[in-house]
Please model this.
Amino acid sequence: MSHSQTDTAAPTEQGTLAAALRNRNLILGGLLTLVFLGAALLSFLWVPYDVTQMAIANKIKPPYADHLLGTDHYGRDILSMLMVGARTSIAVAVLAVGIGMVIGVPLGLWAAAKRGSLLDEVIMRGNDLVFAFPSLVIAVMITAAFGPSATNAIVAIGIFNIPVFARITRSGALTLWNRDFILAARVAGKGSARISFEHILPNVLNLLIVQGTIQFSLGILAEAGLSYVGLGAQPPTPSWGRMLADSQTFISFAPHMALFPGLAILLTVLGLNLMGDGLRDLFDPKLRRGRT
Amino acid sequence: MSLLDVRNLSLAIHGTPILHDVSLTLEAGRILGVIGESGSGKSMTAFSTMQLLPQGAEPTGQILLDGQDILTRTERDMCSVRGREIGMVFQEPMTALNPLKRIGDQVAETITQHERVPRRAAMERAADALRRAELPPEKFPMSRFPHELSGGQRQRVVIAMAIALRPRLLIADEPTTALDVTTQAQILALLKKLVREEGMGLMMISHDLAVVADMADEIAIMQKGRVVETGPAETLFCEMRHPYSKALLAASTHAPERGSEVAETPLLEVRKVRRSYALPAKTPFGARREIEAVKGVSFTLKRGESLGLVGESGCGKSTLTRAILGLEEVQSGEIALAGAPVFTGHKPNPEVRRKMQVVFQDPYGSFNPRHRVARLVAEPFHLLPDTPRAERDSAVAEALEAVGLSAADGAKYIHEFSGGQRQRIAIARALITRPELILLDEAVSALDVQVRAQILDLLADLSDRFGLSYLFISHDLSVVRSITDRVLVMKSGEIVEEGPTEQVFDSPQHPYTQALVAAAPVLPDDVAA
Amino acid sequence: MLRFTLTRLLSLCLSLAVASVVIFAAIEVLPGDPASIMLGVNAQPDTLAALRAELGLDQPMAARYLDWIGGLLQGDFGISYTYRTPVVEMIGDRLAVSLPLALFSLALTVVIAFPVGIWAAARRGSVADVAIMGLTQLGVAIPNFWFAMLMVLVFAINLQWFSAGGFAGWDAGLFPALKSLTLPAIALALPQASILARVMRSALLDTLSEDFIRTARAKGLSRREALWRHALRNALIPVLTIIGMQFSFLLAGGIIIENVFYLPGLGRLIFQAISARDLIVVESVVMLLVFAVIVVNFLVELAYAAVDPRLRAR
Model:
């Protein structure tokens, strides 16, 4: 009923905290994410064993009291390696999301402000073009040029994130540009740059946060994939993907070497995705009425 | 036995009560008008009759269709009732049709759903239904897609679907609310004709007293899920008893008291304004086409005057509004406020703009939900040279108080206010730069009738207190009539008639104005008086 | 429809042209001269110059680009720097593995995702729906190469139903060849199917809340009939978009999965070429992948128009 609206105030947002506490996805996802963030931070201060220390005598041990998750083929403690590896994963994914946001969001805002113009068309076609290069392909090209490294992975995933954020920002901004409050701002004499940052950006922030968590989780997956094929972080820096690549030779008699890094990736990504879903439900009251 | 007999219908959705003891009757060949403001439960009554309720709905009571209780029927049974015994027409014709299916197929589906007939026969009967809905396939082929039709034409398709199997009961839920006034009149006449010719019973749901008064035999008035008044249409308006019905009627015919002091000096001068838009070319290398939205419009608004601008959707009034506000440059012509042009060179002139503010239609969309009310109201300060903080704060407080809110409301967010209060805040925002002219762009169209009456009073009062002039842009003739001194009638980018409001409405000269005035639904004379 | 196709086709060609320039520039500006890498550090200057002339490396960059692109258009991808064999043959052999793998996994993705997504949407809020959504949530989060390793452990090493890796070759017959692609295809498809099922479900739920579904119900259609006859086709637009994107993920993901299963596909080729600095091969494979993605997106846009008459009209 668009024409006759109830003449009562909408429910206040004071219920947000309560809604957040009732949101199972958000709680579970947040907890999982916190565990891995915590592990990564803790690894700066303390790890059970030094990950650069090899102990060949102690190699390929299944989990036992001294090494809770066992040891790898160089006798390194898998739990310690996972903790240090979390740093790599998180750093790569966070920086890649950062690149995507810092470049993609202004592009999307700009395109939306000049919607329908040649500039908009150029920005969006450019985005489509970048989209045609999967991050792995970008990584391959960069590696061919500069050799493999963690930076390489960050740049490759980051470039791929740019069109993602540009598109979502633009589409969110486009619906806002049709709203009357933007017209009111224009009547107040404000220019499109000012309106973009004062009115549009705060209102697409929710979208961006949700997309940010999704791209964060995709970044973790992509980093693991790149490291697995040797295009990401290089030894001796521990990384989850690299650990999986190393474990492949031993999989028939030391499955624990493959199991734990994989589970670490799975649970981190799961946590981030659940958190993203939870945040979306929280931000979008239409979805709050149980659509998950 | 009545065709439809609703007895003590109550409804709760997820435990929240929606309807209380609703009782209604409708005879075959008659029209029952159900009137109410938003939240009155009128639509839920209709959906209960169709048993198309949201999940978690628990209806109690009885809904007898030819003596058979619908509430006791299984979902499977209901599928054979819907479309065959009860047809339904909805509010939004733009979204009521499947955009991917041809209209002929959509109408024929009603038939094939209930009867085993060959496709060809079904298509023929669909063509017949479209003819009865006055959308003859000879002129509008059944192979068209919904997007190739106008809103009124789409509503005819929906009606054809609803009447294809000649159901005994037709439910129309605000069938004309989204349509222009002349289209509305045609659709209402069509529904009336169908009821008379085919002997259907029609349950007509509307928020608009005048629409229902024009066509219903019986009227029921609902408030907060209860039927507060019922009776035959001829006598109901004179014999109303319930205070709510009386208040509703009073609000519908409300005309605010205005002190009229119109000076002879012009305030806004619009001279030969033209504005056209480029459309994309039809072929990749073809010439670009142009559409002229405003074709050389001229008029003058005098100081202290309240001027109406009426016209149907697409007539160019929105384009004209944007041009006056300086949001879009015009191709030719001049717009001047108190002698100063709105545009200097290609830039809008802030000195001129500050003297002119606007209030929009949608009380929900015209505020940034993330800013506090004080910041929202203060936004037009951007047009002024830097104002000290304290001065701003006191101006905001003053504006909020002028519209009947309190200064403390400035600290709240917009979602804490109702639609009517939001429209007051929009007016406060318009007042903040001490403008001389306020454009009211359908400013009361989205409001319930009682709230609308309050806002109209407020506008009249502010005009007297601050010496404001109004340009009142609306499709609603009754509102324009109640608050303007003079009126302009716009059609296809041109002003076809202009003159004192009473004169234009009482003896329209241009054929279009005549059609417009004739199409507007009005309450019976003895009531309005 | 013609206008729509033509404009899309124009934009397709433009994208391809720009993409080729980007790829060429990215690879050509690299440090390191392929000729000196091929001949080693101790090469004689005159043999080096001869090889450079033979490979066309002494030409200016614009000329080399035109040469390369002209060759591509005629199906001549140049000669591999390391193997001295035509690149087109090398790629052809590898494509015979990678393309069927991508298509196989795409088919699996769709075949799994559609029924699951529709089923869940039709039973929204039920235990089955919640369970499916939980499972797909896991499926989305699982790294495909790890899943591949686990499948190798279970189905190849323990149960011995499949071989742990390698490709039987199409000469061995259709069945053995498909069998050696089965585990890789499942590994690729499962996460993508989870994503697609979720998209399908939410697109259907969005469509089911549209006004025209209510109209259809008022005609006497049951909930299920309304879903199949009216909602499904309308929900297809977002689903098609995702399928288009997934194809590029499947191609790229294939590069990694080929490593797990030691499949002689484009992925293995690209890694060998990188380590040998066989740039012309890298260039060609990347161009081929990007070409495939752009063409698939073009097809997806045509599919939109086939589904939606409003797009055809434009």
